[in-house]
């Protein structure tokens, strides 16, 4: 197969193939963004939830927990925590509030963040909103996350 | 070393190795926190240690890529670097910014860090791997742009080779996709969707271009195989990487509220993602088998072969293991992901940077290869780190399978924390393997200081086997 | 020049055999093995293509035994419903399967250059 | 995959026409389509009734016409190669443009089909059948466009006298890709439109 595997053709395939698939990807992204309103629970995206998301970010919760399966794997999944806690924002708030300052000897413990009541409500509302996102096959597989 | 400005790479490589040590130390701390939950609590909670671990990895790999570019681009382009002073300046800016960021993570609570860096003006913090304060992110963009300008001008005004052009596209892509880290919508689904534009399109897209070009460069140098042959392979491999990898992003859109068709698209295309890694192994084996000279730097050859094999194993095989939607339904967000992440990053990116360091460091220190004794120590470190990484991966895989079974698959699912106690044995073994990895890393550093007689390229008459 | 040509043909056949062996381990099991056996029939003893055809058959038979038999034994002994069975079977199968693939890759590369596995 | 560059290679029969590099691409594409077709089959088994019901809404006549167009285009490409082999540049170019015409016809008919479906409000998220129907045919549609871009590039180069009887590997390469596009449709059409 002398001279029939040319560098020029390999280059064309690299450029042509990646441009082609990148355009397909952009097209799919446009379709996805247009379809998202059906699933992404944006109707419940209140100001409280937005503030809750900021709190979630500013305390780096993703550094231990997973949310919809993404994050660290050190602490429980929170994408369905609202359901797991009996659809009660009070239960979530109570849990966050009750974390001991110095941890639990020998065991993993969530830090005490000293949130105000307003902040507790915001973070709980954020988790409720996240639980309301319609995920394919209703992931996670069961209530334990 | 043909061009003086290549020596700037040394600076970058030393910083990279230094940060690598930091990364591993924090890795060992994290491993211990998995089994002794209150270790260092509340001074260094898990999330802080993890942030340091992952951010150091990203930063040192970037240092490694930059150093590699500064080393190989002048030689490939056959001219001095466009602006060596800029490279030095950017090094210090990047190092200081990186160090300040890490110190910020460690010294103040994350919320305080967000406050003092005025995150509310342009909120970008608090998302996995993109935890850096906004100001640091802007700094990264500035450093990257200056770096690409410097490298780009060198490439474009000098001899253009396939290796440098592929490297340049990879680096430009790296900078472009990083811009998505500034987009942080309130809508969680959109946030996650575009977050992957940075993370996936980096590690399974443009970084693969960088990796393949670095590997090709080292292989040309140590084997003396014809450049034409290597360049064809390079093109085909990265073409496959992008063809499979771009839509393969879909395997991250399974469970975040994106439309259902991603389940199929993501599965189909990510099923092809092992192919480029497979071809990379074939390529490296073939080139080494066809080598025209016995380069005295045996360690570099070993690292190059190791990169190909371990990238195939970690990114290809372990990725494929849990990428199909029906499997991922159960494994998503478990220790299986952690297993894959460790081996893929080590096999593909850590090892390729160590390969180019192994090849270029002796040259920058004025000899063709490290002395025989140093190379033996280096090879020991190769095996210690690589084998212990295989074991870390196996133990985490074991933990992951058990976790999936108990927590997700069984009819009477256990809670997350109860499951974690059941898999503790694997975490202990992983910590042990991690310590061996640390020993390997220490040996690696020692190998730079081992004294002995120089090995020179005299055909095949001098080889490492005779002297060791 | 005639001998050179035969050599080339042998190398080509050796490459085909090694490729069939690799494909049988990866995306085209069974069919590739039949192809490998057909290539094997065309070869003569003490040639490089014969060597690689035999090597390919050996790799694949050993791989089949080591992968399926041992996995089946693990399931039989450990019990189908035990989580630990699957911890062992999946980890074992993945890593050992990969080792065989890497081995077959090396064989393919050696076949391309007309060499035996180790020279 | 063979990187040998020894002179003896040319004594061996050539296995694949065109540039070897394109075969990596063709191989990857066929693999994508193969896995997609298998996925379709799996999804169909799970929802036989739904698939059968919605399959009836597809326009088979247009589909059959499109099949004919693509096969004709492939035939024209073959004629183009025969023409260049006897150094007949003029008719080679003519055949290439004719096949481009067939390709355009395909795109036109397919667009009509999509227009009709879209005007009924059907999209990728309507149901699993339409998801497969749309994504498979659209993905193929894009391949037809890519194939046409390649053929056009070849036709222009041929027009400028870039190919001769001795050196026309570029045409063979483009033709190989085009035949792949054709082949995929020949499998796709019965699979999605006809088989019940």
Spell out the blueprint of helices and strands.
The complex is a heterotetramer of chains A (145), B (468), C (119) and D (196).
Chain A: H1 7-35, H2 47-58, E1 66-67, E2 70-71, H3 81-84, H4 89-97, H5 117-131
Antiparallel strand pairs in A: 1-2
Chain B: H1 8-35, H2 46-77, H3 84-107, H4 110-116, H5 134-157, H6 162-178, H7 188-223, H8 227-248, H9 261-271, H10 274-289, H11 298-321, H12 325-331, H13 335-364, H14 372-409, H15 416-422, H16 424-446, H17 464-467
Helix pairs in contact in B: 1-2, 1-3, 1-16, 2-3, 2-5, 2-13, 3-5, 5-6, 6-7, 7-8, 7-10, 7-11, 7-13, 8-9, 8-10, 10-11, 11-13, 11-14, 13-14, 14-15, 14-16
Chain D: H1 20-46, H2 48-55, H3 60-85, H4 89-119, H5 128-159, H6 169-194
Helix pairs in contact in D: 1-2, 1-5, 1-6, 3-4, 3-6, 4-5, 5-6
Low-confidence stretches of chain B: 459-468
For the record, what is the CATH homologous superfamily label of the domain at 60-194 in chain D? Cytochrome c oxidase, subunit III, four-helix bundle
Structural class of chain B: mainly alpha
**Morphology call of chain D:** elongated
Number of strands of chain B: 0
Assess the beta-strand content of chain B as a share of residues. under 5%
Helical content of chain D stands at over 70%
Q: Helix share of residues of chain B?
A: over 70%
Total of DSSP H or I helical runs spanning 4+ residues of chain D = 6
* Content of β-strand of chain D: under 5%
Report the radius of gyration of chain D as a whole number of Å.
19 Å
Mean pLDDT of chain B: 94
Distance between the termini of chain B: 26 Å
- CATH fold group of the domain at 60-194 in chain D: Four Helix Bundle (Hemerythrin (Met), subunit A)
Most extensive chain interface and residues per partner: A-B, 75 and 76 residues
Structure explained in plain terms:
The complex is a heterotetramer of chains A (145), B (468), C (119) and D (196). Chain A is 48% helix and 3% strand. Chain A has helices spanning 7-35, 47-58, 81-84, 89-97, 117-131; strands spanning 66-67, 70-71. Chain A is elongated and about 70 Å long. The model of chain A has no long low-confidence stretch (mean pLDDT 94). With 468 residues, chain B is mainly α. Helix content of chain B is 75%, strand content 0%. Chain B has helices spanning 8-35, 46-77, 84-107, 110-116, 134-157, 162-178, 188-223, 227-248, 261-271, 274-289, 298-321, 325-331, 335-364, 372-409, 416-422, 424-446, 464-467. In chain B, helix 5 packs antiparallel against helix 6, helix 7 (188-223) runs parallel beside helix 10 (274-289) and helix 13 packs antiparallel against helix 14 (372-409). Chain B is globular. Chain B starts with 7 loop residues before the first helix and ends with a helix. By secondary structure, chain C is mainly alpha-helical. Chain C has one domain. Chain C is built from 4 helices and no strands. Chain C has helices at residues 2-25, 31-42, 48-78, 83-112. Chain C starts with a helix and ends in a 7-residue tail after the last helix. Chain D is built from 6 helices and no strands. Chain D has a domain at 60-194: Up-down Bundle (Four Helix Bundle (Hemerythrin (Met), subunit A)). The model of chain D is unreliable at 1-12 (pLDDT under 50). Chain D has helices spanning 20-46, 48-55, 60-85, 89-119, 128-159, 169-194.
């Amino acid at each position: 197969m002398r001279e029939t595997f040319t560098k020029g053709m390999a280059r064309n395939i690299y450029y042509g193939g990646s441009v082609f698939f990148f355009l397909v990807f952009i097209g799919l992204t446009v379709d996805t963004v247009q379809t998202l309103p059906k699933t992404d629970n944006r109707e419940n995206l209140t100001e409280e939830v937005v503030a809750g998301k900021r709190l979630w970010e500013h305390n780096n919760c993703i550094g231990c927990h997973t949310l919809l399966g993404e994050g660290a794997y050190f602490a429980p999944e929170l994408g369905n925590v609202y359901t797991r806690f009996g659809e009660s924002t009070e239960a979530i708030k109570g849990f966050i509030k009750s974390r001991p300052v110095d941890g639990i000897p020998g065991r993993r413990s969530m830090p005490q963040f000293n949130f105000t009541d307003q902040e507790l409500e915001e973070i709980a509302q954020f988790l409720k909103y996240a639980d309301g996102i319609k995920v394919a096959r209703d992931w996670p597989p069961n209530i334990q996350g | 070393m043909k061009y003086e400005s290549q020596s700037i790479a040394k600076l970058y490589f030393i910083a990279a190795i230094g940060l690598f040590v930091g990364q591993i130390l924090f890795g060992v701390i994290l491993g211990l926190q998995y089994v002794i939950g209150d270790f260092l609590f509340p001074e260094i909670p898990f999330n802080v240690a993890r942030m340091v671990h992952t951010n150091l990895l990203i930063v040192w790999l970037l240092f490694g890529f930059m150093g590699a570019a500064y080393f190989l681009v002048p030689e490939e382009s056959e001219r001095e670097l466009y602006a060596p002073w800029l490279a030095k300046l950017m090094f210090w800016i990047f190092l200081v910014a990186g160090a300040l960021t890490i110190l910020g993570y460690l010294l103040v609570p994350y919320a305080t860090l967000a406050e003092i860096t005025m995150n509310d003006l342009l909120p970008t913090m608090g998302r996995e791997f993109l935890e850096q304060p906004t100001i640091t992110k802007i700094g990264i963009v500035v450093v990257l742009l200056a770096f690409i300008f410097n490298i780009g001008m060198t490439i474009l005004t000098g001899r253009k080779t396939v290796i440098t052009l592929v490297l340049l596209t990879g680096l430009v892509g790296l900078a472009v996709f990083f811009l998505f880290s500034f987009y942080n919508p309130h809508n969680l689904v959109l946030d996650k969707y575009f977050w992957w534009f940075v993370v996936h399109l980096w590690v399974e897209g443009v970084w693969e271009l960088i990796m393949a070009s670095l590997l090709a460069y080292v292989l040309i140098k140590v084997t003396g195989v014809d450049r034409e042959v290597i360049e064809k392979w390079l093109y085909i491999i990265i073409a496959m990487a992008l063809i499979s990898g771009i839509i393969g992003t879909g395997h991250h859109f399974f469970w975040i509220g994106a439309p259902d068709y991603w389940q199929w698209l993501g599965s189909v295309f990510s099923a092809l993602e092992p192919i480029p890694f497979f071809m990379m192994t074939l390529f490296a084996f073939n080139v080494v088998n066809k080598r025209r000279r016995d380069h005295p730097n045996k360690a570099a050859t070993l690292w190059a072969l190791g990169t190909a094999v371990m990238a195939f194993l970690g990114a290809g095989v372990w990725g494929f293991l849990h990428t199909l939607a029906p499997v991922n339904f159960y494994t998503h967000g478990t220790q299986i992901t952690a297993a894959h992440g460790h081996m893929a990053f080590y096999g593909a990116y850590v090892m390729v940077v160590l390969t180019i360091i192994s090849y270029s460091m002796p040259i920058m220190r004025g000899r063709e290869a490290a002395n025989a004794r140093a190379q033996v120590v280096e090879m020991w470190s190769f095996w210690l780190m690589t084998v212990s990484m295989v074991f870390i991966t196996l133990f985490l895989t074991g933990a992951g399978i058990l976790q999936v079974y108990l927590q997700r698959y069984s009819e009477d699912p256990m809670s997350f924390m109860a499951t974690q106690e059941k898999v503790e044995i694997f975490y202990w073994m992983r910590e042990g393997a991690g310590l061996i990895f640390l020993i390997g890393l220490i040996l690696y550093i020692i190998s730079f200081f081992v004294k002995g007689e120089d090995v020179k390229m005299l055909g095949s008459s001098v080889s490492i086997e005779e002297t060791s | 020049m005639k001998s050179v040509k035969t050599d080339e043909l042998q190398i080509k056949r050796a490459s085909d055999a090694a490729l069939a062996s690799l494909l049988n381990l990866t995306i085209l099991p069974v069919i590739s093995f039949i192809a490998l056996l057909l290539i094997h029939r065309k070869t003569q003893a003490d040639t490089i293509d014969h060597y690689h055809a035999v090597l390919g058959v050996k790799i694949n038979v050993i791989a089949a035994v080591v992968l399926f038999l041992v996995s089946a034994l693990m399931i039989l002994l450990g019990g189908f419903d035990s989580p630990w069975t699957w911890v062992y079977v999946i980890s074992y199968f993945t890593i050992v399967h990969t080792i065989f693939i890497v081995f077959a890759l090396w064989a393919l590369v050696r076949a391309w250059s007309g060499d035996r596995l180790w020279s | 995959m063979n990187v040998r560059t020894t002179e003896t290679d040319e004594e061996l029969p050539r296995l694949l026409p065109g540039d070897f590099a394109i075969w990596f691409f063709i191989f990857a594409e066929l693999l994508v389509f193969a896995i997609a077709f298998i996925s379709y089959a799996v999804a169909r088994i799970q929802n036989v009734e739904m698939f059968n019901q919605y399959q009836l809404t597809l326009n088979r006549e247009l589909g059959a016409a499109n099949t004919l167009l693509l096969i004709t285009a492939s035939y024209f490409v073959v004629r183009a190669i025969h023409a260049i082999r006897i150094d007949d540049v003029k008719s080679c170019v003519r055949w290439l443009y004719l096949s481009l015409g067939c390709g355009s016809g395909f795109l036109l008919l397919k667009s009509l089909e999509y227009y009709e479906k879209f005007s009924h409000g059907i999209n990728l998220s309507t149901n699993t059948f339409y998801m497969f129907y749309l994504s498979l045919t659209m993905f193929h549609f894009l391949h037809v466009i890519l194939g046409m871009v390649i053929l056009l590039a070849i036709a222009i180069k041929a027009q400028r006298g870039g190919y001769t009887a001795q050196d026309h590997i570029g045409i063979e390469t483009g033709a190989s890709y085009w035949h792949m596009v054709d082949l995929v449709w020949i499998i796709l059409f019965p699979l999605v439109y006809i088989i019940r």
